[in-house]
Every structure is written in structure tokens, then in C-alpha cells.
Design a protein that fits this description.
279 residues; alpha/beta; 25% helix
């Protein structure tokens, strides 16, 4: 992504709420196909005319990808070259920290936001956010507040609606600047419940889950627009193979896993949006 397309995050932090949504396990090819078919009426409003940006995930599964994300290593544009980052935990020799990058001394974005007066909230989805085990508490512990219940997990047929309902309620509690993170679990296996008659997860049920998620996100974006100027990041943490080259699932180095959809955009009180532009 050209540096001109990167908003000046030093202006965004402090003036905007920040909403970071990971659509867990979403493949780029499926996301882009639905955009091109006009089947993402909610997210599509905020995407550029070309649709989702194809990026490479820093990892092949949820835990590793989110550890990288929260340190400022969001998915990298799938093009050669060094690409300036939105956020960067300061370290010597960084070649992707630009004047527009929000650089911080803390170890994670949630910690940096908290120091700067943000209320930091995690709404979990897949098992790495369920707080039921020591491992499931590591990522939520980065936030001041963390929330999860079974209805928000991979077995919850209405999980995204549950997450969005909680998010909108929390956003309405006060006017403090907020860093809100949501890990959307609906696309992760098992997703066959979103496609009537489907018995085995496949590309079609993956797509059906995304259609569900798209509609379920509408109240959240409306709440953000009504509350405060908001900068949103929406991306996948990794994809998932459905039989390509004999692979199924993720935590494997396959294009279906590495290639993820990415977008960032602004939401304001007039429901206008501007992908990539400076505020």
C-alpha cells in the first residue's frame, strides 16, 4: 500500500475510537468473490471499488497471528517491498515504521491505548479468547476488559449477533475513547450450520457464514457512527484450506491460509466513510 494511502495514525489516536475486527479464518478468495457478487451489503459500503486488499498474514493460526497483530504487525500487503505500518511497538532497526505510523514504547497496542486514556475491550470468539484455560487467557489479558461466553464461540449459531449486541451496549456506557477488539468466530469450523442441508464444512458454507457475519455487523457500525469518529480495521487472521492440494484446515503454509482480506476505513456521524484517507 502506498504511504499516501496510510492515514496519519498519530492524528487518529486520541481523536478517534478504534475498532479492530478479526474475521477469524476468512479466506481472501471467498471474501473477494462475495464482494464482487454484491453479497456484502454492509462491509461493501466501506470497501474501495476494488474490494478487499489481499494481504499476507504473519502466521497460519489464530494465536500466533494475534500476538503479531497486537504488537503492530498487521497483515502485510501481498506485494514486494517494505510497507509502512499503522502501529509499531518501538524497536531498533524497524524498517516499516514511517512518520504516519503510531509508534509506542509499550509491548502491545492495547497497552499503548490504555496509557493514552482509552478504554480497551476484548470480545472473544474462538478458543484462544475463551478464558477457560491458561492459554485462553493470554490474549484477553492484554485488555482492561475481556468478555466471552459460549454463545460467542465457534458453536454459537448466532455468535456475531451476540458479540455485536454486547459491543454496542459497552460502547453506550460512557463517552471515553475506546479501543474495541472483536474476534468473530462464525467463519471458523464448524460453519456448515450457515448453509441449510450442508453436512461437511466447505467453501460454500464458509461463504454462507460470511454473509451472516456481514449482516450481523450492521448494528455495530451504526453504533460507532452515532457515538464518535471511528477508525476501523477489518481483516482475517488466516485462511483455511478445504481440500486444496490435499490440505484441510490451517496451521499449514498454503496460499489458502496465507492470503487474507484486509480493509481499514473511517466511520463518522454522517455515516460517511473514506478508505485509507487521513482524518
Amino acid at each position: 500500500m502506498p504511504e499516501a494511502a496510510i492515514p496519519d495514525m498519530n492524528l487518529v489516536v486520541g481523536s478517534h475510537d478504534i475498532v479492530f475486527i478479526t474475521l477469524d479464518t476468512l479466506r481472501h478468495d471467498v471474501a473477494q468473490a462475495l464482494f464482487e457478487a454484491g453479497e456484502l451489503p454492509v462491509l461493501g459500503r466501506y470497501l474501495p471499488a476494488t474490494g478487499w486488499e489481499r494481504r499476507h498474514s504473519p502466521a497460519t493460526f489464530t494465536y500466533a497471528a494475534h500476538q503479531a497483530f497486537f504488537a503492530g504487525f498487521l497483515p502485510t500487503p501481498a506485494l514486494p517491498g517494505r510497507h509502512p505500518r499503522l502501529f509499531a511497538s518501538a524497536f531498533a532497526g524497524s524498517e516499516t515504521t514511517s512518520p504516519r505510523t503510531f509508534a509506542f514504547d509499550e509491548a502491545s497496542i492495547p497497552a499503548a491505548m490504555a496509557v493514552r486514556g482509552y478504554r480497551t475491550i476484548c470480545i472473544g470468539g474462538v478458543g484462544f479468547f475463551n478464558k477457560q484455560t491458561a492459554l485462553g487467557r493470554v490474549l484477553p489479558a492484554l485488555f482492561q476488559e475481556s468478555h466471552w461466553r459460549p454463545a460467542m464461540g465457534v458453536a454459537g449459531r448466532h455468535s456475531t449477533e451476540q458479540q455485536v449486541a454486547l459491543a454496542t451496549r459497552l460502547l453506550a456506557e460512557n463517552e471515553q475513547r475506546t479501543f474495541l477488539f472483536i474476534n468473530v468466530a462464525a467463519l471458523h469450523t464448524p460453519n456448515r450450520a450457515y448453509l441449510p442441508g450442508c453436512r461437511v464444512d466447505n467453501i460454500d458454507s464458509h461463504a454462507a457464514a460470511l454473509r451472516y457475519v456481514d449482516g450481523a455487523l450492521a448494528p455495530l457500525f451504526a453504533a460507532c457512527a452515532a457515538r464518535a469518529p471511528t477508525f476501523a480495521i477489518v481483516c482475517s487472521d488466516h485462511g483455511s484450506a478445504y481440500g486444496e492440494d490435499g490440505y484441510r484446515g490451517h496451521r499449514v503454509a498454503h496460499d489458502s491460509v496465507w492470503n487474507v482480506p484486509y480493509a481499514h476505513f473511517f466511520i463518522d456521524s454522517s455515516h460517511q466513510h473514506s478508505q485509507g484517507a487521513a482524518p
